[in-house]
Amino acid sequence: xxxxxxxxxxxxILASIRHQVLSQNxxxxxxxxxxxxxxxxxxxxxxxTPPKKAVIATAASLIEKCETYMSRAxxxxxxxxxxxxxxxxxxxFRKSGExxxxxxxxxxxxLAEWHLDCAAIQAGLMHDVLExxxxxxxxxxxLFGITTAEIVDGVSKLxxxxxxxxEIAQAESFKKMLLAMSKDVRVILVKLADRLHNMRTxxxxxxxxxxxxxxxxxxxxxxxxxxxxxxxCFRELQELCLENYHPRRYAVLYKELIAARQNRKPALEKILxxxxxxxxxxxxxxxxxxxxxxxxxxxxxMRIKKVSFAEVFDLYGFxxxxxxxxxxxxxxxxxxQMYKPVQGRFKDFIAIPKSNGYQSLHTTVIGPAGTPVEFQxxxxxxxxxxxxxxxxxxxxxxxxxxxxxxxxxxxxxxxxLQQKSSSTSEFYENIKADLFPDRIYVFTPKGKIIxxxxxxxxxxxxxxxxxxxxxHVSSCRxxxxxxxxxxxxxxxxxxxxxxxxxxxxNPQWLDFVRSGKARAEIRQYLRSLDFDxxxxxxxxxxxxxxxxxxxxxxxxxxxxxxxxxxxxxxxxRASLYESVGSGKASFVVVLHRIQTLMExxxxxLKQEQHAIEVIVDGQVQTAQLARCCHPVLGDAICVxxxxxxGLTVHRASCMHAQHAKTNNADRWEEASWGDNANQHFIAxxxxxxSDVRMSITNATQTVxxxxxxxxxxxxxxxxxxxxxxxxxxxxxxxxxxxxxxALKQIPNVTxxxxxxxxxx
Length: 760
Known about the structure:
By secondary structure, the chain is α+β, with helices and mostly antiparallel strands.
């Protein structure tokens, strides 16, 4: 029997179970993703029922939803917008084969579920009219009003213009949407509904396109939903991103989650009973809801903490809804008397709300059988804001609230970033840095709370206070102790900034700041420097950091400088210094390139200096590594005997080897590795990136953290299709796989592949 609390508090869980049973009965093979029909009191939306294919395009369901909260006049306006959109998209079809109008209807239906007003739902119905048909903004304004026309225009992409790359086009469209949403937040709400339905129906796309759209959604739209506080949309998008980016991993986790439900039922039922009894003893009025961790949440925890599914104990939790703020703390005390709390797992988001207005008490306790269980304690109002966020503005019929104020402040901060960014690509980079949901909360000496991105530094803190404070940071004190300005701040730190009129930003700050605001302000200051001043700063920085790159500044040959200058597109050493001093080029990248060229000049490839031991027919033999496939210790290998040249080791999967075997099968032998424990190996890796400069910096640091090193680097000539080529020195295949996995986690890296043939 299913626990009662799961029947009432998490009908999304039951919905997924029902779907699973039906699917099994119908021999269905597709798993469900997240339930868009889950009720408001459901918290996590882990497993979703896929939307049914529409056989007939009809707006009947949309109209029914609108009639529940709209006036008759507004409903008629919605019908008129539907007829207009239906006519505009006549003859157009989606990749699934459905009439295209099914998509605008679905978007408008999502907006109606969010109880948005008439103008927003009209915009949802017509959001693709300007992009995909011959209709104009002026025509929309005349027929449906300027407000609706502005929302539609704000959502529409800049597809009529030609851009040098998809990345720039995406950034320009996002900037256009941002400017529109700063005037009317309904623009982003329509866009979120649009993206949500597209993600629900992404299965008809090619795998590589599904991955690209999923990553874009995770980078931009998931954090957007989080900042706006629309948690049900936030969680569903996360879940759909995982399902489309890592479908096999999602399938495994889904199966494990289903199995875990049965195993943990008795413990959950006991906790529910104990909690209800606690309410009676403490004389507290409230209700308890069951909640389940999403597949995405489980996957993230497994990846970050490097644990298996069996080691994720907090799969299930409880949400306690009480009447007053005081009851929240009373409930917390009663729970801690009933169950032992876990040290360090208590968070008070009531006293210190999140930047999106979220308030709740979080605590993890040791439940029956030693199972950790998380409780979230909040009032009804807090719960509404936690689930609906900015949507509470419309649910409460337009009343101004704290969440509205926070949203406007956030939108203004995005506009400030746009104004201080010199290019669309720079703005896009800065905005993504600030969008990620992981935040920390630190204090000023006067007790004011400052919200910053995870891993922020005192410099980020200073710029959050004021631009002038950031531009003149000389030192800082954290919790009354003098610390370096690049120290990573932790939740609850008290930060005091010491300024000096002679202190100014330098390019090195760009390598450790995390917030988009700090990055934009630093770059703006560096751009304001005159040429001579930038040259001086750039040279000083390179000279100071050269020893850390194991370089003797005065011993760098002219031909090395000439190569670096050519690669960075400058005609003099002074211009190179100026690029570093003004923040156009990273000093890390410049020094690393010099270091690589110096090493290549002395010792082009370390692997060629030593013979490799392999075992052939039980005998130890010496061999050379093939340059066509770059085998690494741990790869499956074979050897080729060439007259007068000895043995050459190839990867068993090497295309050249497989082809050559057909002609000279007698000269090929299977082989295994000998004793090569102290040997280094070279492997070429291709990285598809969205930002060359940032990716080189991050890749250099990432490879070093894994104990490997980059001995070669090719920077693409075509910046519109950036693909870095790295030559990485590793000890074995295991280390190579670790390096590649770490490179995949870099935000600006879209793909990582091991190459068979290098261009070095």
